[in-house]
Each structure stands twice: as structure tokens, then as C-alpha cells.
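Sample pair:
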Amino acid sequence: MVLFFTHSMTTWAHKVPDTLEQRLKACTSCHGVQGRAGTDGYYPRIGGKPDGYLFNQLKNFRDGKRTSPMMTYMVANMSEDYLRDIATFFSNQHPPYAAPQKTDIPPALLERGRQLVLHGDEQKKLPACIACHGQKLTGLAPFVPGIAGLPRDYLIAQLGAWQTGSRHAAVPDCMQSIAKKLGPEDIGALSGWLAMQYVADDGVAEAFSGKVKGHFPLACGSIPGS
């Protein structure tokens, strides 16, 4: 028996708009609306991160320099132009930051984290985090990300990944060099202190002032001209 429908299928099917924002729903399912970060403490905030940094990370996932089966699967067949579009989209999102994480880290360890972030450790030849990530720790556009207010679990995981080589970037890989000088307590201290920091406004990355050459304490392959 043949059934004849008097209404078009389009009266029942919801037409999904073919926009970049709609396509990137796959990203926000983990990274949160506007890339503001998920609630499980592992996925990082990507909204408002500098576009050059986001583009580099997408390329690194695609090319195997960073390991995440889900991320690699999603970007494996994307062109560089499409990756730039994604990076630009999320760079232009500026949702408010979540409240800082509360931790039960001992005060002495938190103080160690504060010292490392603001002053570094001359004995270990570790530069201060603010020397690269900006005085407000919100990053330097277009290539350096903000690190204040990131989830502690995520920070620990990424520092560990640099130490083991499962995350690396363009040579010279400045972050891998730094991470390998950190002991377990240093990583716990850094991640705990950074996760507790309140980020005012929308945490917009600062712009470079002056020349890139000589601005950073280490040459970094991800920052052209450093």
C-alpha cells in the first residue's frame, strides 16, 4: 500500500543553518558555550585565546604534535584555512570567566606556586610565567595563551605531557624545556596557584609592546621572531 503525504518533509524536519557557529557545536560540547570551558575541570577555556595560539594548537593536533584521539579525529582532514577560521571564531568569543577553583593545597605550596609564576626560580633557571604569559597572565596576542584561572587538572596534565614528550611544539620547544625542569611539587604548586586566580573582565590577551625579538627569556618556535 502506498501512502501519500499532504505535507512536505520540511514541515517536520528542523532545518539546521549551515554556519560556522553551528558546525562548531562539536567543539562547544566539550569546551563549553563560546569556548568558556567545561565543568569537569579538564577541558580548557578556548574562548578569547589568541588566534595564532589556537591555530598552532589545531595544527599540532592534526599533525600529531599533540595527542588527543578525539581532537585528532575532528581536525585530521581539515585544511589550514578552515583551522584558521575556527581559531578566529573562538578568539573573538569573550565569555566571562568562571569563579576560581578552591583547593586544599597547603599555604607553603601555594606560596611556592606564586613565586614560580611571578618570579621564577633562578637556581633552576626557570623564568617567571609572567615573562611570557603577560603581567596579568591573560596571554600575549597573537601567539601566547592566558593561563590564569585554568582548571588545575588540565594544567597538571599539560605540564606532564610536555615532560613526557606527548605534547610538543615547533623547535625550539620552550615549554618542554621549562616543564622538564619542574619537579612534582613545582607542578602541584603552579597548577594550584594559577587555578585559584580570579580573571577580571573577559581576560583579553595583551598585545605585544615593541619588538618580539628579545621580549622573551627563551627562544620559542611557536612565536615567530622570538
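The two ends are 73 Å apart (CA to CA).
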